[in-house]
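Structure, all two chains, one model.
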Amino acid sequence: MTTKAMAVPTRQIAFVVDLNKCIGCQTCTVACKRLWTGHPGQAFMYWRNVETAPGQGYPRNWTAKGGGYKDGELQKGKRPGGADYGVPFDFDYEGRLFQGKADRARPSPAPHSAPNWDEEQGAGEYPNNHYFFLPRMCNHCSQPACLESCPNDAIYRRVQDGINVINLDKCKGTGSCVEACPYGKSFLNMADLKGNKCIGCYPRIEKGVASACVAQCAGRAMHVGFLDDMNSSVHKLVNVFKVALPLYPEFGTKPNVFYIPPAFGPMVEDAQGNPTNQAKIPLAYLEQLFGREVGSALALLRSERSRKMSGMPSDVMDTMIGARSADMMISPLT
Amino acid sequence: MALRSRRSFLKAAAATSVGVGVAGTLSFRALAATDPGRDFEYSGWEQFHREQWSWDKRTRGAHLINCTGACPHYVYQKNGVILREEQSKDAPLLKGVPEYNPRGCNKGECATDYVYSATRLKYPLIRVGERGEGKWRRASWDEALGMIADKIVDTIQKDGPDAVSVYSPVPAVAPVSFSGGHRFAHLIGAHTHTFFDWYGDQPPGQTQTCGVQGDTAETADWYNARHIILWGANPSQTRIPDAHFLSEAALNGTKIVSVAPDYNASSIKADMWVHPKPGTDVALVLGMANIILREKLFDAHNLKEQTDMPLLVRSDTRMYLRESDLVADGSKNRFYAWDGKTGMPVLMRGSWGDEPEVKPAVQPPFLARNTLTFPDGTLDLGALDPALEGKFKIKLLNGKTVECQPVFELYRTRILADYTPDKVAAITGVNAKIVAQMGREYAMAKPAMIITGGGTGHWFYSDVLMRVFHFLSSLTANEGKNGGGVNHYIGQWKPVFVPGVAALSFPQGAGKQRFCQTTIWTYVHGEAYDGMEKVGIDTAKYLKHALDTKQMPIYPRDGRDPKVFICYRGNFLNQAKGQKYVLRNLWPKLDLIVTANIRMDSQALFSDIVLPSAHWYEKTDLNVTEEHTFINMTEPAIAPMWESRTDWQIFKALSKKVEEAAVAKGFKSFFDEQFKWNRDLSTLSAQFTDNGKLDTDEAAAQFILDNAPQSKGITLDQVREKPVRFKANWTSPIKEGVPYTPFQFFAVNKRPWPTLTGRQQFYIDHEVFFSLGVELPVYKAPVEADKYPLRFNTPHSRHAIHSTFKDNPLMLRLQRGGPMVEIPRVEAEARGLKDNDWAEIFNDHGKVIVRVKVKDGEQPGRISMYHTPELYMDLIEGSSQSVCPIRITPTHLVGNYGHLLFRPNYYGPGGSQRDTRVEMRKYTGTVTKQL
């Protein structure tokens, strides 16, 4: 439990990621990168990334890095190394293309790791290999380990929307938030020794515009809104339908990013190529990610889709379809 | 504030010495609903990020590349520097379907990178090293264009105008830019190129069946389907802006089936994943048809009314029974069915031999002939009941009696005998029960749609596959229905307003333009080897016949070589199948290679003169697609950087230079015998601009809109305001608020299909079709001319659009830093290969050495290398096209059969590469400097 005195937000922004709609296209990754992290020292950091699950993730093996809370106690986790993030490749195009340098324009450093290194590799053997795409960002937790860990009180929760940000004037670059965040979503900018993380696109939120990863999502897989807004899709999906769940709830930070688990997809095949009645993504794996409630969320999602398949209406499916973007987010328009 | 100076917006901003100021236009009101009305201690600091999300100017932007997206964007600029782009999200809404917004993708959201990229071309360059070496000297526009103009005039004098070759693809992407070089080529008599067929994207099977260049539903219509088969299509990866309609359809209760050898990013969301052996799809389709026929799940009335299924075929000659067989002076282009009511053969209406009372004023290039002025209901059967089954004895004009059978009887017999689910299972590796289930579910869902693309379209016998897709769709009466039909999504091939583009590109008419067929051009001038003799197909024989009889064109004529090659907004060399032959045999024939582009791609690198063109955010152009029905545009956010110019301005300037060179050399005009055209080079620049009326890119864009019925009355200003929907389209009407789906003029209005028989035509009684055994669409195994064990697949990547963005550092950081080949674990283990090893991939046509990624979702027996990395990227040797030959399917050379005729990008050989086979082994050499 956070022990520090903390301004309590009067409202809470929440994000919902629909894993049934995410197509792994990385548009959000790029939108975020080009809006916020193009400055010196930031090339390696992806406030927003999409990884293949099961997989090593970004930063590599983040699920085992530690941090968060155990039995209410703040845990000091590990600080990922450069290779865990992937050292950003550079290319000497100038030399090869304009100065007659003989070799090809090769990536430097030589490729051994990268944020999306194991894209689509997943687990299991053909034809029963399986994977899905898992977008990740700062969870803007209600019990943020980063905040409690900061010795300089540089991290705070914004009162008006519950977005967690690092005050760069106060930050002294101790990196404690990098260690404390169990999701690997606090970064240390080595160029200026400041902590950097997702700011929830608060300048957009303040103007009534959805965050870039939501407004620019080509898969239309993202929702953003205030949890206390009874008309918002995030409220319905999280609180009413209860199909959107936090990632690794046992980390104890109370995330405000919620995931609709992947409920559909081909079944496991037997040796003759006949589909069985077993989903390719093992339930145990989804429980590991989203906790025990995932089973009932999956059951609801499947039964609601069955209703649609037999021509009956479904509020749950319609909310996920989000025929109009304005129904999925505060305004998408910039 | 220290923070601000430390964090400049862009390195480029610093480079231009422009400070990062606060945009005065933004007042940071607290959002009323969220403001607790309390001061917050840190709020002063928050201003820093607010400033990052601010701009001076917002302009329209589009990405002028062959990606099919045509995604409306805004481009944000501050202090003269482009910061970023974001989808404008204002594509108009259609009824009953989710919205198109926000259309975009990972590439589109970093398109600004190319403005400031290290690969950006800044100045005209003249080669000083070897081609491909990357050694240049900077030249002025005056010098570079002067050299080109000199060479062009000399070549026209010495070798003829048709020795000048001008290549630029995909007008839909950027019709003004496209038209620049084509208008120039048209006026000097140079030959231009086809591209849609050369890329393997033109669906010849759809032309054979439907008499059209191709047509597809806009992607919002996917949502209207109740059953979708993604046949070899992976929209999650290759149609990123459209893929959401699939997941939304699924959530709305649509069943999704994915047919693909690999467990791809779309298969993972499907209800059923079917993974046949690559290239056996026709058998799988016919297995479905077998069930549909056996269980009588088909719509016989639709077959009788809309297709050639009732038309009679002579058993003696295997030819259609024609009017000329029965009637003195009868037409060879009128066809009979057997009327069950009268027991007589009856001529079916709407065939090629019938003329409408109202003669069409125009011949649209996308229809074999304009059948749209036939009255509605021409195909209506009225009192007729054409037989689909039976054998009928018919007495011919010459007194002979022959037995005739309807096409349906012929085809059904073969399908029932040869494509039982068990036999299909043996061919495809798909469980027989699954085959039957696929057939039943497809037939019973209404409407049911097939979505396909390059995965099925790039095979040697891809035309047969498209024919059987249409057969399935016709059997079940899904053609012309919203949510139904066969939709192929390939390149951004469809300039809906094509008459306007043609008018701008070819002011004297397309009939006076030399079009070469690029597959043939490359095969012939590149002296490409295809190995087809190993499977008993003599390409040379078919090709010689097609050229000798002028069924297909070749330029220059009479066995001469091309001398000058001008390529703009295209990466011809890098994309060329048979790349090894192109470099070895075609390149040396070219005295001068000129390339204009925004960046140094492989085509530019291997050129003699390189011209810098303006980035997509530095010019005005239109941008349209087949994936939606809105006109999108781009406009200059900033002036063209460095010395770059728009394509339109480059060719305007080149026209002036050619005019000057012609006058200086005393070669002011020449008579072009082929078109009886006295070409006056001394007034070339006035001809190019139509005496100044087309001076600007904006004027050219408006000219296109004004000169096409699909867009007449729409102004550039309206498109700047927001994307505007086309007023009309190709084979169906545009209905307010309703997604466009093709073929309704035929399927719903019952006007004749533009084929020889006036119907969807599955039986093609042509000698070449007979010689290959495909007069009816039946399964043909992939051609196994490469005697190697692994099928070589070259799919599109999510991180690039062909070669564009292949070099983008951000995209490469989100991959593995360079090109890779994905291989199944068993194939890797069999060859001692581990993830991230270098491997040599080879066959008789060439070699590529590339890094390996082990992928458990890939089917054993196949490897996939995302196609066409640049030749200067992180490969040790070659590239994906190094092992792909050019293979010409003989049926694509037919140009003397009703609706099968050469017209640029309408019909012609595609140069398939999916049949390619290779072997691979671990590469143990060093990372050499060899290119």
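The mean pLDDT of chain A is 96.
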